[in-house]
Amino acid sequence: MIELRGIWFKYDKKWVLRDVNIAFKRGIIVMITGPNGSGKTTLMKVAGLIYRPTRGEVLYNGVNVWSLPKQKRLEARRHVVYVHETPILLRGTVRDNLTYGLKIRGYNEDRIEEEVESIVESLRLRSLLDKKAGELSAGQSQLVAIARALIVKPQILLLDEPFAHLDREKRSIVSTLLREYARERGMGIVLATHDEYLAEQLADNVVNIEEIQGGQNIG
Amino acid sequence: MSFIEALSIAARSVYIAGTATLLAFTWSFPLAYTMSLGRRARLLATVLESLVGFPTVLVGLLVYMLFSRSGPLGFLGLLYTPYAVIIGEALLVTPLMTGILYRVLETTARRYWEVAVSLGASEGQALATALREAFPAVIATVVMGFSRAIGELGVALLVGGNIKGYTRTLTTAIALEVSKGEFEDALALGAILLVIVVSLSVAARLLLREERP
Fold first, then answer.
1. Residues 6+ apart with CB under 8 A from B92
2. Structural fold of domain A2-212
3. Closest chain A residue to B212 measured between Cα atoms?
4. pLDDT tens sequence across A92-112
5. CB pair distance less than 8 Å for A104 and B119
6. Do B69 and B84 touch, CB atoms closer than 8 A?
7. What pLDDT score was predicted for residue B212?
8. For chain A, which residues make up each domain, given as ranges?
9. By CA distance, what is A72's nearest residue in B?
């Protein structure tokens, strides 16, 4: 479980998050709504342990992650994965992208191959596997970015506008898979999306970011 | 001017500009990297960007004063040597290279660093990934630095002295040939300069195309 407790975050001089309190639990799909610029992405990145909050605590299974030594923090980070709104793929092939997270975790070749086979099958990516990342369409890139995150089987998966570039068929495949991962594998999934219809079909809870911003602006 | 002499001048120009570019890279990259980590580096980046257009002749004058016999570094005896030109050109291309490298690291590298971290990379693994992804842009920056260095005249003339067979570069040789009214030789040297710059640029593009995702 990831819990954000009294989180404040500012860019330069502007507070983007003000006293935010929220918890993301395993097996639950949460949808974050809110207008553009309301801090959804920042919230996701703080929860994804990418951004260190200006104030407040980010607890992973009850432990404040930012007070942990580097190695322990890395272990926590490996259970929480954030996927950017604009898919950012690494240079190389789709296979290189899919295997990146597994390689840095030190998985052996057989295990990597097994995991790649499984995700390729689930998201119907076989025809793309040996394509260069730069040759993919926006939708294909987004699908690969989602696959690259799912393949490492995080306990908490944070998806920023995951359906933005996907066609109807791919949205259906992804949402079915996300539901399966949440229900059967206990993955906690957080979606920041404008696609309210699809998200409401998927989400167990809907949270408006403006309603969880507790504090007033401070200097 | 003989063909051999022209080639010799071209080779010296490549050596001086190449060494100056590499020298500038050795401090520009760490500086840009340090700047990209800090939140208050934008002002410094703006200053560096404004220095990109610094007149080469002024850089030459400052380096001349630095290395002249009565200057603070006069005891090194570097004035009118290729080393003085290398140092001068390295200083000249530093704002350009640092400014661009900062932008590269601030945008491209930071994006990929974030992706790597979000996928569970350690800080070392994330840095390696970010640098690998920024590699094409870093190469492009080096090519730009080299093109600026090999094409400049002010530094090479003032601190190199255009000594035949020692500090004469393509640009100083062109200036000399024009002053003598030898326009054919000047044009031939200009063509060599152009071929070097364009070839390097094309080679970098081909390399980067191979490297594209």
1. B20, B54, B56, B59, B148, B149, B152, B155
2. Rossmann fold (3.40.50)
3. A91
4. 999 999 999 999 999 999 999
5. yes
6. no
7. 54
8. 2-212
9. B122
